[in-house]
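Q: Fold this one first, please.
A: Sequence and structure below.
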Amino acid sequence: MKLSCADFTFPLLPHDDALSLIQMLGIEGLDLGVFAGRSHLQPGDIVGNPAQAAGDFTARLDDCGLLLSDVFLQTGKHPGDKAANCPDPAVRAGAREVFLKVLEFASEAGAVHMTGLPGVSFDGVTDSDGLKLAAEEARWRVDEAGKAGIIYSVEPHVGSIAPTPQAAADLVRMAGGLTLTLDYGHFIYAGFSNDDVHALLPFASHFHARGGAPKKLQVPMAENTIAFPEILRRFDGYQGWICLEYVWVDWEGCNRTDNISETILLRDLLLGASA
């Protein structure tokens, strides 16, 4: 089992300190967040000179002895901003340009996996058409990433164009080669059961783990209802990373956990269940 941790788990620390903390927790991999307006390293820090940004970043990563497990790109300041499936062709073209620059950065940094967001619903666009456009854009990104030897996935999330297990499965099937960064918490929050989400495991190339419960997107492990031991037993043939992905952001109560303690508790639960 390969465990990673997101740098955006500790957004209040300077980036080097966040990386050092992850290494101190005995975690091997680093999930890098590249989020417009709210991550240590943002798209604007990369697009001007992706190769230089990658060199600077990998030098700091190497100093901490961490491996780059994922580059998670969020082009806009919220999921609907510069969304991949925006009905405006000019917005989609701009998002593609940013994607290509961050893809170049990811390749230069030695990444083998990238995550993005699938898109959202838009007024005046049926969810069916929105999903088709999301699939079209995802397929293009899969192909571009593949040229660089990188796997591209999307994370179905609360408020996305794929908010249900069925919609997420439909998106994967419509976008040939697409995989998922799977976070049970988004579906458990919405009232789906663990059994409902298990069907998505074969599509997962990356996995986000944190405590979750119905109507609560992120909770302490003492309140968690996600069946992590059972999920690990169902990970037959899974070769990807499992990212400990507690976040700290003022959204859906995701700033109410002690992320250091909860990351340790989740780490130990997963290690114990896999022993």
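Q: Good. Now the second chain.
A: Here it is, same layout.
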Amino acid sequence: MLTDAAERTLHERAFASLADADVFGVAAVEDTRGTPLYDSATALLPGARSIVVVGSEVFPEVVGLVTPEKQMGAASASDLYTPHMDFLHGRLNRAIYDVAKIYRGAGFRALPLPAAGTPFDARFFRGILSFKHAGEYAGLGRIGRSSLLVTPQFGPRVRLACLLTDADIPSTRRALEDLCASCPDLCVAHCPAGALANPGGGQRYAINKFACSSFRQASGLCATCVSSCLMGRETR
């Protein structure tokens, strides 16, 4: 067992390795008890105590080029989106594996969940662990009308990767205001698939995942809910 001083040093090393990340935080698994996130985390890594969440900004210059219409065979600026995301995924995966090595080297267990390619239940359009909910518990942002994690810095233009560990890392959870409160629900109004609706019954968002997925597959790509968001327009 590590001393308190040794644990602090270990956490400092881990956080230092994330210095190049655009956003990162830690969710305490215990804080999620009674939610699907808790069930997922403890099923994947029994005894998990912390979820490290790392995020990279999706450049607005790239998001602005994405349109949901593409002519067969024609060159499209939207095609720049895929290599951009591939780079971000590689960056995020490197970050969580670096952190995993630090904690595993100290005798803890660590399970990296990469930015792309994690198991996905196609019956319900649900990932094996909800990165956006982990990000919310880690204090990175709040889930908005678009059903995406909306951050104060970048709005919904963030890709995430996670790490489960049985190390007890201090949580970065914090109270954030409703980042959608001052917006006239532009993502709902402009969704070309009609997949988003104004939520009711105390819900924060309402989305038809099947309509969203079907439209994206038919059109090739869509990021209207991201590009229409007012949050994070100015990133620097």
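Q: Anything worth noting on the second one?
A: The CA atoms of residues 148 and 234 lie 19 Å apart.
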